[in-house]
Amino acid sequence: MNSALPRVLIVDDERSNINILGNLLAPDYEVVVAIDGASALRRARAATPPDIILLDVMMPDMNGYDVCRLLKADAATRDIPVIFITSMGEEDNEAYGLDIGAVDYVAKPFSPAILKRRIQTHVELKRLRDHYQHLSATDPLTGIANRRRFDEAYAAAWQSALRRHEPLALIMLDVDRFKAYNDHYGHPAGDRCLQRVARALHGSLVRADDLLARYGGEEFVCLLPATDLAGGEAVARRLHRAVRELDLPHEHPEVAGRVSISVGVAVAWPAAGGEPERLVAEADLRLYEAKAGGRDRIVAGGAVSDGSGQA
Ligand SMILES: Nc1nc2c(ncn2[C@@H]2O[C@H](COP(=O)(O)OP(=O)(O)OP(=O)(O)O)[C@@H](O)[C@H]2O)c(=O)[nH]1
């Protein structure tokens, strides 16, 4: 689990309040501040987001409730715990703050020692949640994304491609004659081979949005947003070469003495009502053709138009 200091974002239009909270937390937290709602949202959406947000209610322009609602409506910031710290201590206000998604509501004047413990509890819970989320999305053998993570990312990428009128490329690939590899070298060696293949494949991807996942067994999938067929083929060639360059021995009469992969590439221009499964089936079909054609090769094609007329 992450051992760096947790990052706390303090949002308050009063400098003196920021100083009090900042001094209380500074030894144990990395403190980030915002003096209005707009900059609070910016900091929450930053590349390194805060682990917790301490939010004032009464602020000019955008009040704390509005900031909290916007944070909870955005998938990128929804899971950051928010604690209101405010002089508006009435029961109705507190109930409202909790209703819109805050994990806690602290009325002033507060006990610094108690507040600090409450913050610590919520940060620990958040870190545990992050840890389990990571575990549930990761393939334990190879450390890359698992099928569940792929399914989620694929659904989101399809929607995003639909909105932006962009193509979406998909690569399915599979280690050749892997049953024979296991039979010859043993299952533990097969596991190590899959780990090395996964690392090589992962190292061949350059765009942050591209996702490599273990699809199952010795099969991997690669999701390439905003990529057409030519782009998909270019990535497929890099993946294929990376595995070849590993130069892992594979003694089997039907492989070329080293571990190789067969690769299928397909592309779709998602349209409303289109079926995301068709692109997966298309990439799978190309992979099947690569196997049937002799393995250790790439087969690309079969744009799925889904009625958009752009394929
Ligand atoms: N060591 C190891 N083997 C695995 C793992 N997952 C799947 N396999 C093995 O991968 C093999 C896949 O075999 P097949 O589906 O027959 O395919 P293949 O032998 O690779 O043949 P082609 O795909 O047709 O080239 C099976 O023997 C599985 O047991 C794993 O996590 N570790």
From TrEMBL:
Residue numbers bearing the 4-aspartylphosphate modification: D56
Keywords: Phosphoprotein
Residue span(s) of domain GGDEF: 166-303
Domain Response regulatory: 7-123
Record's keyword annotation contains Phosphoprotein: yes
Superkingdom of the organism of origin: Bacteria
EC class of the enzyme, as a word: transferase
Catalytic activity field: 2 GTP = 3',3'-c-di-GMP + 2 diphosphate
Keyword field contains Phosphoprotein: yes
Pfam families cross-referenced by the UniProt entry: GGDEF, Response_reg
Catalytic activity, EC: 2.7.7.65
Name of the protein this chain belongs to: diguanylate cyclase
Originating organism: Aromatoleum anaerobium
